[in-house]
Amino acid sequence: MISGGDRADARRNRAKVLSAAGEAFAEQGLDVPLGEIARRAGVGAGTVYRHFPNKQVLLEAVFTRHLDELVASGERRMARFAPTEAFFGFLLDIVEKSHGRGYVCDVVAADASWPRPMLAACVLRFRRVLTALLHAAQRAGGVRADIGPDDVVSLTVGCASTLAARRDRPAGLRLVQLTLDGLRPSATVTKRQDFRDGLDIRQEAVACCEECGAALTVRPTGRPVRYCGATCRQRARRRRLAG
Amino acid sequence: MISGGDRADARRNRAKVLSAAGEAFAEQGLDVPLGEIARRAGVGAGTVYRHFPNKQVLLEAVFTRHLDELVASGERRMARFAPTEAFFGFLLDIVEKSHGRGYVCDVVAADASWPRPMLAACVLRFRRVLTALLHAAQRAGGVRADIGPDDVVSLTVGCASTLAARRDRPAGLRLVQLTLDGLRPSATVTKRQDFRDGLDIRQEAVACCEECGAALTVRPTGRPVRYCGATCRQRARRRRLAG
Amino acid sequence: MISGGDRADARRNRAKVLSAAGEAFAEQGLDVPLGEIARRAGVGAGTVYRHFPNKQVLLEAVFTRHLDELVASGERRMARFAPTEAFFGFLLDIVEKSHGRGYVCDVVAADASWPRPMLAACVLRFRRVLTALLHAAQRAGGVRADIGPDDVVSLTVGCASTLAARRDRPAGLRLVQLTLDGLRPSATVTKRQDFRDGLDIRQEAVACCEECGAALTVRPTGRPVRYCGATCRQRARRRRLAG
Amino acid sequence: MISGGDRADARRNRAKVLSAAGEAFAEQGLDVPLGEIARRAGVGAGTVYRHFPNKQVLLEAVFTRHLDELVASGERRMARFAPTEAFFGFLLDIVEKSHGRGYVCDVVAADASWPRPMLAACVLRFRRVLTALLHAAQRAGGVRADIGPDDVVSLTVGCASTLAARRDRPAGLRLVQLTLDGLRPSATVTKRQDFRDGLDIRQEAVACCEECGAALTVRPTGRPVRYCGATCRQRARRRRLAG
DNA sequence: TATGAATGAGTCTTCATTCAT
DNA sequence: CATGAATGAAGACTCATTCAT
């Protein structure tokens, strides 16, 4: 009988194992020996197996719990905050809680391929919350309309990696913001061809807008242009005054 | 006697092993058995060991080659393209070539901690090219000034993860663009507190700019504001006309 | 978690492994596969590793146990026998119990170079007992004064090799006695030059004492001398009568 | 075609390999990789195999050469020195040239069990020389009559081990002398029972001869006896004067 | 029921031996 | 013939999983 136990100590043990596994996976990657998890939990290896029939299931349980926590946090945000805040707060939450890169990297796999129904259900709930938050934010105009839930998930995965890669945590968080801000309507995504190989050096020699980097048409006479237009000039000015 | 050999078949085998290892690491993660690599390369396990004294060294060789290719591509771009194009093209290159998530995740480790001198030298070269491209792009005004090489590396790692996470490759590439565009001067990074937990729902109820998501000051009377200012109003309008 | 267990079967298995290892090392040398040891012990390879983290440690454990038994035997002798008897009995014990040549040959290494503290302590105890027995025997006049503990150890190693080399065990033991008797005060050790290359054949043509081999001064006339002195002549006579 | 080659360079290579193998076996034990031997010899692994079909044969060749050298040295001694000198010099030679304990320990195996005819013949020659020297020395009265060739071989093996065990080489050589001196007629070998467990401590309390360690009968009155007889008393006196 | 001991399949690595250059 | 590259059979060691206590 797996895990359905009703004795208090059994439930306590299950929880201990789950926590220990969560930490272990995060700190040491998905390859931590089960023995290490058992040690961290302060139980025997057999006890781990009593509650989780194998390592895969344990990993899924950990992941499920993780998702459940995220879902709960998402729902809380949905109830308490404005759509856009809720949405971006939710994403930050996901990213910050996804400590441990091996761990994070495997969130990737969490689309449809996980076989266990419990996990599938959980992933579904997660997607539902995410989607709800996303749509709300989009309706509120806080997020670009051409973004779907899959985009958000993938971007989140990327942010977690970025955060893991950057040793300096504050700097890492800034990069995460920078990335997530790409979801805001104001962000203009460069078309891929825009800066790919086709462009020749002579064209650029002309310089680009110092504010947004957009290409500037050369003008043979007069003072060289520095900005692509009034907006950018204003913006740059404001920045100068503010800075 | 490792690898220095000049016999044609030996060189061929070394190359085969290196390629096979690259693919294997990318597809199956860093845990692929060496036997699998040997099998893919069509050689015996011993041959792998003749060329690479152990798995770690093999991994480093693969990684070194990868970096070397990137360095070469970076230098080519530096010579042939305008700064900003060169820089962003380089980043896209890195991301696109960083197939395989386990693989990518370990680019992370490529700071100083790798012990082998050859790899260290290689990482250095990589950093040098990256830094040169970054600075050139910044001088050209194509990249925000408050970004350092470490930021770029971390962001790149994140982009690679994003790309790996997104099954739909074009969509993934678009997300990458979106992220990299965060490096352009026009991008405004939200201050972290802007959309974190501190904000209460009532405050937001006031709404935010539908274009950029910036908070809007409430006004008790009149038609409710939809944008934070003229610029955004214009932009939104243009989008509507274009869409 | 290595070996500290208190479960009866675990202790039993540990003992089985230790015994099997002892025999295996003795019979097949230090290169026996661990699998062979496991097979002899009737356990799986993993069990060996549960009790001994690696082969070296296993070897040290075997060796430690061996030394401990010798120490115990030495202490028993010290308490129950007269110094000289105790000493020589101890040496014989060591030699006879040092079955297996590879095994024996590595007793050599047992000076300070073994890193494990437990083994070091054990070697120390062994040296202490050996030294005590040696000194007591020397004080009692049963052992030459110009012999130190290191000499005894080395000689013992040699005796064990001799014993191992001689297929006929009683003959081997006799050779061991012969060697150990060299430690008794009555033994005269030939100076190294006495029978080395320097001597020319003509000098020897003169002959040497038939009993002790000492060189005899030539005498041009009379019956040739056969012995170096009266003592030897007597001794030879006695032998002839006895024989 | 193995080794029968007549080309000068082939013969030279064979010799190089043989020397290198000899050193390698002596320094690193019988487990030294063939590659190491090839490296030392400055040839490729294939060349080793061209001359010696496998490692065992190579080892035998090394051993054969070793024995041949010993045989030559023995024959030289036999021709040039008096029997006893020749004999003991021969033994010392064997011992001193048997550097490297693993190597030495395996001389043990050199009785009948070696299958290759060449080696067998060589061992035979060795035995013949040894036996001749032994018998000559015995006839000359320089070696006890109750010693056979097998005894000598085993003792030699033991001496080599002793020498290997004693870090301090001069001290080691002294121990070797001490052991070999046990072969001289003057040496009295204690009967095994003489100092084995049977004796009780009270009996020894009486003390033993300070010169030869023989047990002394207690005498209740008068000055306590220190020596077992006149011979020992004289000997001790001479030592005192000499010392 | 909890424990931790036992198992054995799987992985890395070495090295004797063969074989293409 | 010489070379050194390739091979693959072991051996040490790990760890998920089972099982006796």
CATH level 1 class label of the largest domain in chain A: Mainly Alpha
Strand content of chain A: under 5%
First CA to last CA of chain A: what distance?
65 Å
- The third-level CATH topology of the largest domain in chain A is Tetracycline Repressor, domain 2
Q: Summarize model confidence as the mean pLDDT of chain A.
A: 77
CATH architecture of the largest domain in chain A: Orthogonal Bundle
Question: How is the secondary structure organized here?
Answer:
The structure is a homotetramer of 243-residue chains.
Chain A: H1 8-28, H2 34-41, H3 45-51, H4 55-80, H5 83-97, H6 101-105, H7 117-139, H8 149-165, H9 169-180, H10 201-204, H11 230-242
Helix pairs in contact in A: 1-2, 1-4, 4-5, 4-7, 5-7, 5-8, 8-9
Chain B binds a DNA duplex (21 and 21 nucleotides) through residues 1, 5, 7-10, 13, 33-35, 43-47, 49-51, 53-55.
Describe the structure.
The structure is a homotetramer of 243-residue chains. With 243 residues, chain A is mainly alpha-helical. Chain A folds into 2 domains: 1-53, Homeodomain-like (Arc Repressor Mutant, subunit A, Orthogonal Bundle), CATH 1.10.10; 55-188, Tetracycline Repressor, domain 2. In chain A, 62% of the residues lie in helices and 0% in strands. Chain A has helices at 8-28, 34-41, 45-51, 55-80, 83-97, 101-105, 117-139, 149-165, 169-180, 201-204, 230-242. The N and C termini of chain A lie far apart (65 Å). Chains in contact: A-B, C-D. At the A-B interface, helix 5, helix 6, helix 8, helix 9 and helix 10 of A face helix 5, helix 6, helix 8, helix 9 and helix 10 of B. Chain B binds a DNA duplex (21 and 21 nucleotides) through residues 1, 5, 7-10, 13, 33-35, 43-47, 49-51, 53-55.
